[in-house]
Amino acid sequence: MIGEECITSVPPQIKVDSKSDAQN
Questions:
Q1: Quick check: pTM over 0.85?
Q2: CA 17/CA 9 separation, integer angstroms
Q3: CA-CA distance, 9 to 24, in Å (whole number)?
Q4: d(CA 21, CA 23)
């Protein structure tokens, strides 16, 4: 949850990267 809130602040490009990493 913390990661999702953090990626929300960053641009969409990083958001997708973070989401992919978190899911993996």
A1: no
A2: 13
A3: 21
A4: 5
Query: How many other C-beta atoms are found inside a 10 Å radius of the C-beta of residue 2?
Result: 6
Helix (H, G, I), strand (E, B) or coil at 2: helix
Q: What is the 3-state secondary structure (H, E, C) of 11-23?
A: CHHHHHHHHHHHH
DSSP code, position 9? H
Q: What is the number of residues in the chain?
A: 24
Which tens digits make up the pLDDT trace of 2-23? 566 655 666 666 656 656 666 6
CB 14 within 8 A of CB 7: yes
